[in-house]
């Protein structure tokens, strides 16, 4: 069995390099900030529904396959100001962040809703770290 401490460390290093050196704490803080500014998972769901993308968000919280989202769609739903603010916190370009969000946000939300529904509107930092850590293990494993 591989050493999970070593694996976790490698996952965090890989994530850190993708995020301009900010690592797990940076992405957790950014995800938390983004969710708070959106009004939690319910608020984000409402934003996607208002933009005509409710089915995409619903697929992320359900137990089925996640529908993909384009970076431009996320930018439209979340707003340029929010994306730029989070990108600034991470020390990266907002276009790069939009691309990463398009890849990872559906998976993060999927991880935060394992029973196919929103049970906690405002996930804790520990919940976010766990979801992101699980994604990195899947990404690197």
Structural features, described:
The chain is mostly helical. 74% of the residues lie in helices and 0% in strands. It has 8 helices and no strands. Helix 1 (4-18) crosses helix 8 (125-140) and helix 2 runs antiparallel to helix 6 (80-90). It starts with a helix and ends with a helix.
Strand and helix map with partners:
Layout: H1 4-18, H2 23-38, H3 40-50, H4 54-61, H5 71-78, H6 80-90, H7 94-112, H8 125-140
Summarize the structure.
This protein is mainly α. It is 74% helix and 0% strand.
Query: Beta-sheet strand percentage?
Result: under 5%
Kindly state the mean pLDDT as a whole number?
Answer: 82
Give the beta-strand count: 0
List the total number of helices.
8
The biggest beta sheet reads: none
Class based on secondary structure composition and strand pairing: mainly alpha
List key phrases describing it.
141 residues, mainly alpha, globular
């Amino acid at each position: 069995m591989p050493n999970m401490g070593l694996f976790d460390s490698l996952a965090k290093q890989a994530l850190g390099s993708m995020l301009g050196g900010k690592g797990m704490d940076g992405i957790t803080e950014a995800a938390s900030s983004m969710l708070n500014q959106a009004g939690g998972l319910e608020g984000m769901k409402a934003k996607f529904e208002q933009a005509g993308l409710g089915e995409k968000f619903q697929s992320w919280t359900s137990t089925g396959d996640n529908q993909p989202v384009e970076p431009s769609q996320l930018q439209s739903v979340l707003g340029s100001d929010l994306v730029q603010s989070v990108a600034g916190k991470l020390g990266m370009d907002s276009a790069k962040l939009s691309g990463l969000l398009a890849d990872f946000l559906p998976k993060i939300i999927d991880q935060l809703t394992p029973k196919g529904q929103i049970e906690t509107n405002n996930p804790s930092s520990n919940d976010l770290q766990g979801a992101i850590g699980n994604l990195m293990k899947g990404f690197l494993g």
